[in-house]
Design a protein that fits this description.
- There is one protein chain.
- By secondary structure, the protein is α+β, with helices and mostly antiparallel strands.
- It has an 8-stranded antiparallel β-sheet with strand order 8-9-10-11-12-13-7-14. Strands 1, 2, 3, 4, 5 and 6 form a 6-stranded antiparallel β-sheet that branches.
- β10 and β11 form a beta hairpin.
- α1 packs across α2.
- The longest helix is centred in the middle third of the chain and has 33 residues.
- The two termini are about 20 Å apart.
Length: about 350
C-alpha cells in the first residue's frame, strides 16, 4: 500500500486543510447493523396474517444474523445489507381452539436480490392435516405480507437511517431532505470521446505518441468467475474502488471509474476467462486509448490473472504500472479476501 501523501494524484483525492471531507469526496461508512436489527423486529414481531380462514401471528425473531452498512462517496450513497432471519409463528385454522407453531426462514435478504426473489421458507412442527393447511396458507399468502415488511425495512434504510450521512458543503447549511433530493442523473456517456467499435487504432492528435507495453501477473484465491464478476459488476466495482462507477457490461459498453479519472469501452467479454477493453486516463491526449487484455486462468485452488496493456504513453508508464496494483489488485484482495502473493512477468 502507498504511504500517506504518496500516490498518483489522478487516482486519488488529496486532503484539504480547510475541511475533513471536502464535498463528500472521501469514502465514509456508517454502520446500520444495530438500527437494522431493531427496525426488523419492529416490522415483523407482532405481524398478523389472516387469509382463507387462517389466523397467524409472528411471535418472535429467533435468529437475526448479518450486517448492513451505508457508504458515501461524493454525495452518492451505496447500500450493503445481508441478513438471515428465522421467524417464529403461531396460528390456527378457523374457530379451532387448537393452535400450531412453526418457523419462517429468510436466508437471502440482500441488496443483490430483488424483493420477489427473497425466499420465505415456511415449516410447521405438527404433522396433522390442519397444521399442514395452516402452513400452506402462510406459505402462499403470508410470504407476500412478510416481503412487504422487508421492503419497508429497505425503504427506511435508504431514507430514514441515511439522513445526514451526506455532509453539507461549504455553500450548504444542511443536507437536503428526501423530499428535496433531485433524481440522480446518470452521466451522459455521449461526452466520452467518440471511437469506433472496430479494433482500436491509435490516433495521433497534433504530435506522435510514443507508447510502451506492460505485462503483469498475480494470483487470487478465488475461482475465475468470482474475479470476473468483481471486475465487471458495478456494485462490486464500487466496493473495491471506494467510489461511484458507471458501467455497461456488454460489448461496446462504456465504463467510467474513479470519479471520471479512468474511462474506457469493453471490446470483449468472455465469461469467465477473458476481458478486453479500451482503457485510458482522462488526462491522456483526446481519443487515445490503451488496449487492456485480462486473462483469468483456473488453477483449481486459485486463479492466475494475466494482464497485458499496450499503447501506454511512455511518459505515463510508471504511474500507470503502479496504479494497477495499488488501485486495482490490492483493494480487490483487501475487500473480498482474495489475498495471495504478488508476482510479475
Amino acid at each position: 500500500m502507498a504511504k500517506w501523501g504518496e500516490g498518483d494524484p489522478r487516482w486519488i483525492v488529496e486532503e484539504r486543510a480547510d475541511a475533513t471531507n471536502v464535498n463528500n469526496w472521501h469514502w465514509t461508512e456508517k454502520n446500520a447493523t444495530p438500527w437494522s436489527k431493531k427496525r426488523l423486529e419492529e416490522l415483523l414481531v407482532g405481524l398478523k396474517i389472516e387469509a382463507d380462514g387462517v389466523k397467524c401471528e409472528i411471535k418472535d425473531i429467533s435468529k437475526i444474523e448479518g450486517e448492513a452498512t451505508i457508504n458515501n462517496r461524493k454525495k452518492k450513497l451505496i447500500f450493503f445489507y445481508e441478513w438471515e432471519l428465522e421467524l417464529e409463528w403461531k396460528g390456527s385454522l378457523g374457530d379451532s381452539k387448537t393452535s400450531f407453531t412453526g418457523k419462517a426462514e429468510i436466508p437471502n435478504l440482500s441488496e443483490e436480490n430483488d424483493m420477489e426473489d427473497i425466499d420465505v421458507n415456511v415449516s410447521v412442527k405438527s404433522n396433522s392435516d390442519e397444521a399442514h393447511k395452516v402452513k400452506e396458507v402462510i406459505r402462499k399468502k403470508g410470504s407476500d405480507i412478510i416481503r412487504e415488511r422487508l421492503g419497508q425495512y429497505i425503504k427506511d434504510l435508504k431514507t430514514e437511517f441515511s439522513q445526514n450521512l451526506i455532509l453539507p458543503s461549504k455553500d450548504q447549511k444542511k443536507s437536503p431532505t428526501a423530499a428535496e433530493k433531485k433524481p440522480v442523473v446518470k452521466k451522459d456517456i455521449s461526452t466520452l470521446p467518440v471511437v469506433s467499435k472496430a479494433a482500436p487504432k491509435e490516433q495521433m492528435i497534433g504530435v506522435k505518441i510514443n507508447t510502451l507495453t506492460y505485462k503483469y501477473q498475480e494470483d487470487f484465491l478465488c475461482p475465475p468467475d468470482e474475479l470476473y464478476t468483481t471486475l465487471t459488476d458495478v456494485v462490486r466495482v464500487q466496493a473495491w474502488t471506494h467510489s461511484p462507477a458507471e458501467m455497461e457490461t456488454e460489448k461496446g459498453g462504456p465504463f467510467v471509474l474513479f470519479n471520471g479519472m479512468v474511462e474506457g469501452i469493453f471490446d470483449e467479454l468472455s465469461f469467465p476467462n477473458k476481458i478486453v477493453m479500451r482503457w485510458r486516463f482522462k488526462s491522456w491526449p483526446p481519443a487515445h486509448y490503451s488496449v487492456v487484455t485480462v486473462q483469468l486462468i483456473d488453477k483449481h485452488d486459485h486463479t492466475v490473472m494475466r494482464l497485458t496493456q499496450t499503447g501506454i504513453p511512455d511518459s505515463d508508464f510508471d504511474r500507470t504500472k503502479a496504479g494497477w496494483r495499488q488501485y486495482y489488485w490490492v483493494p480487490i484482495k483487501d475487500t473480498f479476501g482474495f489475498g495471495a502473493r504478488v508476482g510479475s512477468l
